[in-house]
Amino acid sequence: xxxxxSLIRRINDRLAIAVxxxxxxxxxxxxxxIAARRLGGSLGGVDEISGYVxxxxxxxxxxxxxxxxxxxxxxxxxxxLVPFGRAVFDIISLVCLAGTAIVVAWRGWSVLEKTLSxxxxxxxxxxxxxxxxxxxxxxxxxxxxxxxxxxxxSVLMKFLSSDYKSIDQIAGARGEx
Length: 177
Hints:
- This protein is an all-alpha fold.
- It has one domain.
- It is built from five helices and no strands.
- α1 runs antiparallel to α2, α1 (2-38) packs antiparallel against α4 and α3 (83-118) packs parallel to α5 (164-171).
- The two termini are 29 Å apart.
């Protein structure tokens, strides 16, 4: 299971780079729009596209935050516990996170399914087919649910073998640097 966790981390590292490049592209697009407006023109749709980009990159980026232990946690009590207690808190935290990701992915599918069945388009000048940004957003949540579930499975296996140090490395809270 440790090699699977390493694989998830490597995949999320690459996804984070892709997300960063997409955000840089969105910034460049916005800057071009600003310059075009100064010259009396406009590309149009930058605000709409940037909204889609933010939703999509966030849904994919949260998996990277998970594997890098960058999610915000209030660990005032956790840091005072023995390794067993910290491991229990880490498992509870990961169960909640994986559960939330699974629910959002599950409920997100019904939204995407309705969009696909109705052929919904954005009520904007671009008339974007909404299935495009919604499917990219939904896929990010599915990946987050998969990542969190794999980490949870790994942590549970480590807990059964009393390997609390590995649990901390996989799901622990990062201390302040």
